[in-house]
Specification:
This is DNA-binding beta-propeller fold protein YncE. By secondary structure, this protein is an all-beta fold. The chain contains no helices and 32 strands. It has a domain of about 250 residues: YVTN repeat-like/Quinoprotein amine dehydrogenase (Methylamine Dehydrogenase, Chain H), CATH 2.130.10.10.
């Protein structure tokens, strides 16, 4: 491996405008889309400076695609076997190499690989998140109950990884088990003091909570997320959101007590949830007949905007906002033989260049009735 060597091949990509959002004065909010030259899709990471979107192809690919939001060009970064989940800390992008038993560290400015963190053979890291200068990764090869959560302290000069989330026992339950077995690599998200680790591809999904600190403490297990969990993401103040194929709405829960805090319909299998804490909104993506994306104000009843990207083709975990919520990126499996396309929803909240959130978008008709959770 020769670190520091650029491995990018620039591709000129035609961007086609496919408007599908309408503001209240009937002006169309632009939605562009661009072909992504990857065999499949796993994750996306949006960077504001420079304005880029990184897309990974998952265990069956060997690289990343990088969309330049300024030029519209796409570059491929090669020699990243099984590039899957990503997490960013400053200019460093950490990429889980599910087929390489390692984590690559890329510079988002130069697109060069800075170093590679080796893991034990047959670790298969797949999902990642960062909180308080610690990189957490969900790992596990196949579906043999070999999954777990590992970590790397980013202030450790050696970047030594630890496999298995070893926890201090809960003072109120000293006999409680802190390590949890996962059917496969768990989907994770993290924020200051909190970690979520979710079982995927099971008929009944479970989301496990951990309190982070000098030593993580196991919290509780949520079993109300539905079957075949697709996405989980933190919002503000510990609230988190789930999307599952068995639900045609996203669900909101509180971290501390796992209390139910509402639902956000999308009208089909819920595949992606993307909260933006600064603007207090949630984008929900689904495998729907009416629209792929619905955007809600938190606590809202009807969406402030909806979008039809490529009906019924939204990718799992295929939504993410840029930093100031002026762009929502969506990924569909709309290309030839299900290859990914990146959709760019320009200013769906009507914030505009001056940053004034006047939100001119007119709510579209609500999606079909949703069953009351728990019934």
């Amino acid at each position: 491996m020769k670190f520091g060597m650029a491995v990018a091949a620039a591709l000129a990509v035609a961007v086609a405008a496919t408007p599908a959002l309408a503001a209240e004065d009937d002006d169309e909010v632009p939605i562009d889309d661009v072909a992504v030259p990857l065999p499949a899709y796993a994750d996306l990471e949006v960077v504001d400076e420079p304005a880029q979107v990184f897309l990974s192809g998952g265990p069956t690919s060997n690289g990343l695609a990088v969309y330049d939001a300024t030029t519209g060009d796409v570059e491929l970064l090669a020699d990243l076997p099984g590039a899957s989940g990503m997490a960013r800390d400053g200019d460093d992008l950490y990429v889980a190499l599910a087929s390489g038993d390692a984590i690559a560290v890329l510079d988002v400015v130069t697109l060069e690989e800075k170093t590679r963190i080796g893991l034990d053979r047959q670790t298969c890291p797949e999902h990642m998140a960062i909180a308080e200068r610690v990189l957490y990764f969900g790992y596990g090869c196949g579906n043999g109950w070999t999954g777990g959560v590992g970590s790397v302290a980013l202030d450790d000069p050696e970047l030594n990884p630890t496999l298995g989330l070893h926890c201090d026992p809960d003072p109120d339950d000293p006999e409680g088990e802190c390590r949890v077995e996962f059917h496969r690599a768990p989907l994770i998200d993290a924020q200051t003091g909190r970690l979520l680790a979710a079982q995927l591809s099971l008929s009944q999904a479970t989301v496990h909570t951990y309190h982070l600190g000098a030593s993580p403490v196991y919290g509780d297990a949520l079993d109300k997320a539905g079957a075949h969990l697709m996405d989980v993401a933190f919002g503000a103040d510990g609230d988190f959101y789930t999307g599952a194929a068995s639900k045609d709405y996203a669900q909101a829960f509180g971290f501390e007590n796992l209390d139910y805090r509402g639902s956000y319909p999308v009208g089909g299998q819920t595949r992606a949830v993307a909260p933006h804490t600064g603007e207090g909104v949630l984008a929900v993506g689904g495998y729907a007949d009416l629209a792929d994306v619905a955007i809600y104000e938190l606590g809202g009843v009807t969406p402030v905007a909806t979008a039809d990207l490529c009906r019924g083709k939204l990718a799992p975990r295929g939504l993410e906002w840029n930093g100031d919520a002026t762009v929502l990126y969506g990924v569909t499996l709309c290309g030839n033989e299900g290859t990914p396309r990146l959709h760019i929803l320009d200013d769906p909240l009507g914030i505009g260049d001056d940053g004034d959130p006047d939100r001119p978008n007119e709510p579209k008709p609500p999606t079909p009735p949703v069953p009351v959770p728990g019934t």
